[in-house]
Specification:
The protein folds into 3 domains: 152 residues, Butyryl-Coa Dehydrogenase, subunit A, domain 1 (Orthogonal Bundle), CATH 1.10.540; 120 residues, Butyryl-CoA Dehydrogenase, subunit A, domain 2 (Beta Barrel), CATH 2.40.110.20; 148 residues. 55% of the residues lie in helices and 10% in strands. It is built from 18 helices and 10 strands. Strand 4 and strand 5 form a beta hairpin. The protein is globular and about 85 Å long.
C-alpha cells in the first residue's frame, strides 16, 4: 500500500501550479513535464527500496553513543547511498556546481514522497542538501571545489549547528568563539545542542555549518559569522569535534540528536564562509529551506497516517449504519459519518498543505531564476510572508491530522501493531523544529506583516484575489469564493486593529495573540489553495471514470474545508478584535499560582 497519492501530486504540480512552465526560464530550459515525471518515477523507486521492517527497527533500536562513537541503522546507510547515487543531493544545483538544475519544487515533491515512507531517514539527505546550497551560494571557489563533490556524491554529509544551551531561539546570545589564525582560518571553540544527524557512521566526514562569534565582533546577531567545520581534516586526522551526548527523543529516533563540542583541545579548525558578521543572514538560506521542509514533512507524515487510516476504515467492520434496515449486518466503519469526518479532515490537511508548500517552492524557483527584477521582488515578498506560515500550518495541523488517524484506528492505533503510534511520536517535534510556533507567529505579525508597512501583505492580497476572481466564474465555486473574499476583509480589519494597538500599547499587548493571527492567516492560505484546486478541476474535462472519481473527491474535500474549517475563523476574529489580553502579566504580579 502506498502512503501517498501520485495522482494528487501530479495534479498539484502539473495542473494547478503548471510547474513545467518553468522551462521558460533559462535555468530550467531542458526540463519539461515528461522529464520531470521521470524524476518523480525515480523517487517512487527509491520509496519502494526502503524496507518497512527497517523503519520499525531503526525506531526501536535507536542509535547509541559508546566511547565517543555512534552507529545508525544499516537501512539509513542504504537510503543515503541510493539517494546520493540518484543525484538528488545536488539535484537542484547548477550543472556547473555538479547538479542537474531540477526545480526545487520537484525536489520538494520527491522528499514528500520519501517522507511518507520514512520521515527520519530523509533528515540526513535534507541536511546535506542544505549545506551544499549554502556552500554553492556563499563559498569561495576553493571551498566549492573541495567540499561540494564530496557532499553531492554522498561521501560526506552535513549539518547545521545553531542552538546552544543558553541560546535556544535567541541566537543573539551565541557564545561559540572563532579565533583568527595567521593562515586565514579560525580556531572554533564552543558547544552546540540538538544537532540532528550530528554524528553517525554513514560517511567518513561530516561538514558542520557552525554559527560562532569572531573575537571582537559586535554583540547581538550583527556579530555572528558562519563557518564550515568538518569532523576530519584534509589529511584524515580528527578536527577536534566530539560528541559528548545524545538526546533520547520520543520520536524520529533513527536520526540522532547530538550534543557536540568543538575545540575541547583548542585544535578545531573552521573556515569562514561568506562575509564576517553576516553569518546569520547566510544561514537563513538553509533555515528558510528547512522551514519549508518541516511544513512538507507535516504533510508527508500526515499522508502516511491518512492512507493507513483510510485502508483500515475500508476493512474494519464495526456497528451498523445509522439508517440500517432490520437484520442488516455490521458495516465498514468508513460508512459512519463521524469516521468520514475524521478522514476528510486528514485529506483536507494533507492535500491542502502540500499544495501550499509546493506553491512556496514554485515561488522560490521563480525568485531565484527570473531575470525580471520586479518579479523577483514580488516573489521575495511572498516568500518572506508565507515561509513561516507554511512551516507552522504544516507542523501544527500535521499533529492534529495524525491524531485523527489514530482515532480512526481506535485502540489498535495505540499499539505497536500499526504504524500510527510511531507517526504520532515522530510528528510531534515539527511545531518545535526550526523555530517554534510562537516564535514564527511573533515574526509573522511583528516583522512580515507590520514591520514592512504591510507591503508584503498587499502583494499577497493581489495574488489571492486574482485566484478568487478565476474561481468566481464557476457557479459551483461562487459559494466558496465569496466567504474567502469576506474573510480577507476580516483579516484587513484585524490587521488594522492590531496596528492601532501597536501604536498605543507595549509589544506585550499587541503581540499577545500573534499565534491566533498566524492560525487565521494560515487557514486563509490553505483555503486559497483549495479554491485553486477547485478551479483547476472545473477547467478539466472528465475524460475517464478515474478522472471523474478523482475530481469528485477533490470537490468533496474542498466542500469539507469550507464547511468545517472556515467557520472557525469567526471565533478567532472575535478574539483578535478584542482589546482584553488576560495572558499579559498584570501590574508585574504573577497570578498563575
Amino acid at each position: 500500500m502506498k502512503l501517498f497519492s501520485r495522482r494528487n501530486l501530479d495534479f498539484v504540480l502539473f495542473d494547478v501550479l503548471e510547474i513545467d512552465k518553468l522551462k521558460g526560464l533559462d535555468f530550467f530550459k531542458t526540463h519539461d513535464q515528461e522529464s520531470l515525471s521521470l524524476v518523480l518515477d525515480m523517487a517512487e523507486d527509491l520509496y519502494e527500496r526502503i524496507d518497512d521492517e527497517a523503519i520499525v527497527e531503526a525506531d526501536r533500536r535507536e542509535p547509541c553513543l559508546k566511547n565517543g562513537s555512534l552507529k545508525v541503522h544499516p537501512a539509513v546507510h542504504k537510503f543515503v547511498k541510493d539517494y546520493a547515487e540518484a543525484g538528488l543531493i545536488g539535484g537542484a544545483l547548477s550543472e556547473e556546481m555538479g547538479g542537474f538544475q531540477i526545480p526545487k519544487t520537484i525536489i520538494a515533491a520527491i522528499d514528500f514522497i520519501l517522507c511518507s515512507k520514512s520521515n527520519s531517514f530523509i533528515m540526513f539527505t535534507d541536511l546535506a542538501k542544505g549545506v551544499a546550497n549554502v556552500i554553492s551560494t556563499f563559498g569561495t571557489e576553493e571551498q566549492k571545489n573541495f567540499f561540494l563533490p564530496n557532499i553531492l556524491s554522498g561521501k560526506w554529509l552535513g549539518t547545521m549547528c545553531l542552538t546552544e544551551t543558553e541560546s535556544g531561539s535567541s541566537l543573539a546570545n551565541i557564545a561559540t568563539k572563532a579565533t583568527p589564525e595567521p593562515n586565514g582560518n579560525y580556531t572554533i571553540k564552543g558547544q552546540k545542542i540538538f544537532i540532528s544527524a550530528g554524528d553517525h557512521d554513514i560517511t567518513e566526514n561530516i561538514v558542520h555549518l557552525v554559527l560562532a562569534r569572531i573575537e571582537g565582533a559586535p554583540k547581538g546577531t550583527k556579530g555572528i559569522s558562519l563557518f564550515l567545520v568538518p569532523t576530519k581534516n584534509e589529511d584524515g586526522s580528527n578536527n577536534d569535534v566530539s560528541s559528548i551526548g545524545i538526546y533520547h527523543k520520543m520520536g524520529q529516533k533513527a536520526t540522532p540528536a547530538m550534543h557536540l563540542e568543538f575545540g575541547a583541545n583548542d585544535t578545531c579548525t573552521g573556515y569562514l564562509i561568506g562575509e564576517a558578521n553576516k553569518g546569520l543572514n547566510h544561514m537563513f538560506l538553509m533555515m528558510d529551506s528547512a522551514r519549508l521542509s518541516v511544513g512538507s514533512m507535516g504533510a508527508g507524515i500526515g499522508s502516511a497516517a491518512y492512507y493507513t487510516a483510510l485502508r483500515y476504515a475500508k476493512e474494519r467492520k464495526q456497528g451498523k449504519r445509522l439508517n440500517a434496515a432490520k437484520g442488516e449486518e455490521q458495516t465498514e466503519i468508513i460508512h459512519h459519518p463521524d469516521v468520514r469526518r475524521m478522514l476528510l479532515r486528514q485529506k483536507a490537511f494533507v492535500e491542502g498543505t502540500l499544495g501550499f508548500v509546493l506553491q512556496c517552492y514554485a515561488y522560490l524557483d521563480m525568485q531565484q531564476h527570473t531575470d525580471n527584477e520586479e518579479e523577483r521582488t514580488k516573489y521575495t515578498r511572498l516568500l518572506n510572508l508565507l515561509t513561516p506560515v507554511a512551516k507552522t500550518y504544516g507542523a501544527e495541523k500535521g499533529v492534529v491530522s495524525v491524531h485523527q488517524a489514530m482515532q480512526v484506528l481506535g485502540g489498535y492505533g495505540y499499539t505497536e501493531d500499526f504504524p500510527l503510534e510511531q507517526l504520532v511520536r515522530d510528528v510531534r517535534i515539527l511545531p518545535i523544529y526550526e523555530g517554534t510556533t510562537g516564535i514564527h507567529s511573533l515574526g509573522l505579525l511583528g516583522r512580515q506583516v507590520l514591520g514592512d508597512g504591510g507591503r508584503n501583505l498587499e502583494v499577497w492580497y493581489s495574488e489571492i484575489k486574482g485566484d478568487i476572481e478565476k474561481a468566481s466564474r464557476f457557479k459551483n465555486l461562487e459559494i466558496y469564493a465569496e466567504p474567502l473574499s469576506r474573510e480577507l476583509e476580516t483579516l484587513r480589519k484585524i490587521t488594522a486593529h492590531i496596528l492601532g494597538l501597536s501604536k498605543k500599547t507595549s509589544p506585550d499587548i499587541f503581540l499577545a495573540d500573534a499565534t491566533l493571527y498566524m492560525e487565521f492567516f494560515a487557514i486563509l492560505n490553505v483555503a486559497w489553495q483549495w479554491l485553486k484546486q477547485g478551479t483547476t478541476v472545473q477547467n478539466r474535462i472528465h475524460a475517464t471514470e478515474d478522472d471523474t472519481l478523482f475530481y469528485d473527491s477533490k470537490m468533496l474535500t474542498l466542500q469539507y474545508f469550507f464547511d468545517y474549517e472556515i467557520p472557525n475563523l469567526g471565533g478567532i476574529a472575535e478574539r483578535l478584535l478584542n482589546n482584553s489580553r488576560p495572558t499579559v502579566l498584570s501590574n508585574d504580579k504573577e497570578l498563575l499560582i
